[in-house]
Amino acid sequence: MSQTAPVAASVTDLAEALIACPSVTPAMGMVFDCLEEQLAPLGFEVVRFVAGEAPDGPVENLFAIRRGPEGSRHFAFAGHLDVVPPGEGWTTAPFLPERRGELLYGRGAVDMKGSIAAMVAAVRDIPAAAGTISFVITGDEEGPARYGTLALMDLMRERGEIPDLCLVGEPTSVHRLGDTMKIGRRGSVNIFLDVEGVQGHVAYPHLADNPVPKLVAMLAELDALVLDEGTDWFQASNLEITDITVGNPAHNVIPAQASARISIRFNDLHTGAELGARVTAIAEKHGGTARPVISGEAFLTEPGAFSALLVEAIRAETGVDPELSTSGGTSDARFLKNLCPVIEFGLCNATMHKRDEAVAIADLDALTRIYGRVIEAVFKSPGANS
Question: What are the DSSP E strand ranges found in 143-229?
Fold first, then answer.
């Protein structure tokens, strides 16, 4: 790491610096150097480490902490520096940030280097005596996420530095900054289905055992399931068939095997294990097997003091009353909720994962002020641990 790198002059400058570091998942090296160079001069102890082995590693992670007075509250920002591959067709190079009019373009502008830049800019004006602040930043959220935030949580437990509250900077806003924040997420389980048969000639079916009709019947029963009708905070759970594979190159051969994959996004009426067991029973009923892989469980941070102070900060800076939502896919909040109450709030998500990803420069400034208000409110409000 350079020892002379200046602290970025503005939140937009910092966002540009982060975008200029190519960091397709898993992110390593340069982009972490850039973030460390911004945090160290602000008094943060920065710990970087690499975890895991192939195929899901190695992954670089960063934990930075600036401790307040003994017994003070601990507020954590969490996020990721890795980005999805940029793809083709960008107007300008995806890792050469460019300001055009009121927008800043570049891969990661909203998901989520822009939010991380706002976090860093927000803490500059918070005195160390106010309380403890930490950054929980992984290089693998967009990928397998096996050695990212989970490894950071292990480190925090080992060090005894568990936050009281955590804010994840995912791009939650939909139409304008501040219209949506996430107080929970649905769980996710992918289930791999297999049916074994006996290969044979189609003219002699009595000498074979066709697995395809069994798989079709299995999928029909699964597709007809109504898992629930939703809850006060969650939409209904949904089961989707995402792949069917037979791989039979011959028209006159009964195949020996047929496979499928389903994905279930579920609310807090279920667990991944319970749904996996339910699907397994149906698969076995039709002569097949099931292999569930749970990506994360559903969770809800009940509305309370924490969400209320975030709502107030958003309203003060934008004039918007945010929707408290649990929609969308998964995020690393599904892990962090095991440490402390967690809420997600960040930039507008209209261009995330798209070519010509861009953030409004005014939104970067406003998000910085919102994050600053949140930190100040947390340290002033001892009852916000909910």
Answer: 165-168, 180-182, 184-185, 187-196, 200-201
Please tell me the predicted confidence (pLDDT) of residue 381: 79
Residue-level pLDDT at 6? 57
First to last CA, the chain: 38
pLDDT for 4 equals 42
Q: Which tens digit of pLDDT belongs to each residue from 125-137?
A: 999 999 999 999 9
Q: Which of 16, 60, 141, 344 is catalytic?
A: 141
Calculate the alpha carbon distances from 6 to 10, 33, 40, 158, 365 in Å.
11, 12, 11, 32, 20
CA atoms within 13 A on the CB side of 157: 10
Choosing from 82, 111, 142, 357, the catalytic residue is: 82
Supply the DSSP string of 327-363, one letter for each residue: -SS--THHHHTTTS-EEE--SB-TTTTSTT-EEEHHH
* Catalytic residue flag (residue 232): no
CA 17 to chain centre: 22
Concatenated DSSP letters of 51-97:
E--TTT--EEEEEEEE--STT--EEEEEEE--B----S--SS-TTS-
User: Could you give the 3-state DSSP secondary structure of residue 317?
Assistant: helix
Comparison of pLDDT for 303 and 9, the residue scoring more: 303
Known catalytic residue: 141? Answer: yes
The two three-digit tokens of residue 43, written as one number: 């008094």
Count the neighbouring beta carbons within 10 Å of the beta carbon of residue 51. Answer: 21
The β-bridge partners of 187 are: 266
- The verdict on pTM exceeding 0.70 is yes
Distance from C-alpha of 354 to C-alpha of 85, rounded to nearest angstrom: 10
Which among 53, 79, 187 has a CA at the least distance from the CA of 142? 79
Which of these, 166, 151, 168, 165, lies nearest to 111 by C-alpha position? 168
Q: On the CB side of 174, how many CA atoms lie within 13 Å of its CA?
A: 11
CB neighbourhood size of 248 (10 A): 15
